[in-house]
């Protein structure tokens, strides 16, 4: 069974500055909205990453090793830079299902403004709307001034 991870929004560097277009929206909305209601929940996220884990655990031993994790990284561009150590919390060289599934979604962390573990389209719009300028625009200078 192949991994079906188009548009997964798993970002691991959560303190990075915001680019002009939010990187978590660059590939469109996440595909893990199970009931397609436009609301992204923590339960939907956990269910989605549980399926990812099951698909990647090729030998069905209940954990991901480095080669199996490489499969996750190749599944989608948003996971290409995922760090094995980020998921391997106890640093034992393997990622258990709980370690993988219990990691919070960077998408929910970024957009869930009221902390209810649900991201609505209003919250996405509010977070993605550019704020006004932070002071007067700087006047261009030529080489004489």
Q: Describe it for me?
A:
- The protein is mostly helical.
- It has a domain at 31-128: EF-hand (Recoverin, domain 1, Orthogonal Bundle).
- 33% of the residues lie in helices and 6% in strands.
- It has 6 helices and 4 strands; from the N terminus they run βαβααβααβα.
- The protein has helices at residues 42-56, 66-75, 84-87, 97-101, 106-111, 121-128; strands at 40-41, 63-64, 95-96, 118-119.
- The protein has a two-stranded antiparallel sheet. Strands 2-3 form a two-stranded antiparallel ribbon.
- The termini are far apart.
Instruction: Please summarize the sheet with the most strands.
Output: 2 strands, antiparallel
CATH architectural type of the domain at 31-128: Orthogonal Bundle
Overall structural class, as computed from helix and strand content, comes to mainly alpha
CATH-defined superfamily of the domain at 31-128: EF-hand
Intertermini distance: 65 Å
String of helices and strands: EHEHHEHHEH
Features of the shown structure:
single chain, 145 residues, Recoverin, domain 1, two-stranded antiparallel sheet, two-stranded antiparallel ribbon, disordered N terminus
Give a concise summary.
The protein is mainly α and 145 residues long. The protein contains six helices and four strands.
């Amino acid at each position: 069974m192949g991994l079906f991870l188009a548009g997964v929004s798993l970002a691991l560097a959560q303190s990075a500055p915001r680019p002009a277009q939010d990187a978590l929206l660059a590939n469109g909305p996440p595909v893990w909205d199970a009931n397609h209601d436009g609301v992204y929940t923590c339960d939907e996220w956990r269910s989605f990453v549980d399926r990812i884990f099951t698909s990647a655990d090729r030998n069905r031993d209940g954990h991901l090793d480095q080669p199996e994790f490489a499969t996750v990284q190749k599944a989608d561009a948003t996971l290409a830079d995922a760090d094995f150590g980020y998921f391997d919390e106890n640093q034992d060289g393997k990622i258990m299902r709980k370690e993988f599934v219990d990691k919070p979604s960077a998408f929910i962390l970024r957009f869930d403004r009221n902390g209810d573990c649900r991201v609505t389209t209003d919250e996405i719009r509010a977070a993605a709307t550019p704020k006004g300028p932070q002071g007067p625009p700087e006047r261009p200078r030529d080489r004489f001034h």
